[in-house]
Amino acid sequence: MTEKPGSNRGWHTETAAVHAGEFVDPATRASSPNLVMSVTFAPETVTGFSARDEQGYEGFVYGRVSSPNVSQLGAKLAALEGGEAALCFGSGVAAAHAVICGRLSCGDHLIVPDANYVGIAELARDTLPRFGIEASYVDVSRIEEVAAAIRPNTRMLWLETPANPTMKLCDIEALAKLAHDRGVRDVAVDSTYATPIATQPLKLGADFVVHSLTKYIGGHGDAMGGAVIGRKAELDALNLEATVHFGGVLSPFNAWLILRGAATLPIRMRAHEEAALKVARFLEEHPAVSRVFYPGLASHPQHELAERQMRNFSGMMTFQTKEAGPAIAARMVKDLEIIHYAVSLGHHRSLVYWIGTDDIQTSTFRHDPDQLRRYRDYAGDGVFRLSVGIENPDDLIADLARVL
Ligand SMILES: *Cc1c(COP(=O)(O)O)cnc(C)c1O
Questions:
Q1: Residue that finishes a domain, picked among 206, 240, 262
Q2: What is the 3-state secondary structure (H, E, C) of 41-99?
């Protein structure tokens, strides 16, 4: 039972979610993981002082480099994604920053989606150019546009599927093959919406998977975190830079909470999907609703890809309304009784938020007019982003009916 965490013994997903990375504590025989808040650890033999000396050392030395609860969580995530290793960070954005800034250098070129998670879109737009890293914004659902954007110095293709907030998908397997064939070293996939229950990007050819643990994997809206999963050699190298030099590490308490949340990820995802499908069908039929984007509906423009790439359609959807969105949003703030009008997603609690097109185009995207027009064609004046929780879908439907 004290087998080193991280060993993936061929367990089924539900079993790995509960047991991977965990073990009976040899000192106390505790069945559940102990919370270990200690920042420093007393070595049994004299070790070096530099983090470089700690590489390969089996025990823990200092909390920024590794600590028990964080390493247990990493082992569980690696098992769930089918990866060799994982690194955890203080937020999803810290994980994205670690991969992007840990892997790219001045003079490198990066391809990012033309509409993806705003924090990462803004990192690419505002921060990376100051360090000499140029980004191209591409509709990654169109493989020929990605092919056309690759340059001799393109070192990373960043994907997100389904994308926040558009619900557009991209074909990870086809894009990873294209990128690698054309000499792009790294393919990284932000798989926060999909979770490893739906899609395992490493098995489709990606080099790195990034998660906001704040969302489905933690699942309860009470702990922020992020993770990167991939090959051990690359993550060991990244660990030196990203944790030792950047320092955006995960707190043991958050790791402990997220570890507990992750145990129920497979059953929660089934409940999210079941409720979301029912809510999506209700919205699609509702006279006040003009359009619903949910990968599990036949009406999703990429439903065929969703069926091929996602084993679970997740709980995320967007919808557009005939009445102006801000007026409905104002009613949601006042009149919703169950669903919270709030940002974030993937919690057991349902959440909804209005994302206006003017707002996102001025705050986040800085694209050419043709790309802005295409986003508007897709999203209209804006979309409601709905994260369907694990409540009874009939109650959620009654709540939505109240404000629509
Ligand atoms: C929320 C989110 C992030 C950022 O995660 P934080 O934990 O909030 O830093 C990144 N990508 C996607 C798709 C997200 O939804």
A1: 262
A2: CCCCCCCCCCHHHHCCCCCCCECCCCCHHHHHHHHHHHHHHCCCEEEEECCHHHHHHHH
Q: Are residues 239 and 355 in the same domain?
A: no
Atom of ligand 1 nearest to the CA of 120: 10
Do residues 395 and 302 both lie within one domain?
Answer: yes
Residues having CB closer than 6 A to ligand 1 are 91-93, 117, 119-120, 160, 164, 190, 192-193, 212, 214-215, 224, 226, 345
User: How confident is the model over 163-179, as pLDDT tens digits?
Assistant: 999 999 999 999 999 99
Euclidean distance between CA atoms 247 and 305, whole angstroms:
38
271 and 241, same structural domain? no
Q: Is pTM beyond 0.90 here?
A: yes
**H or E element in which residue 268 lies:** helix 265-285
On whether both 326 and 229 belong to a single domain, the answer is: no
Task: Please state the atom number of ligand 1 nearest to the C-alpha of residue 192.
Answer: 13
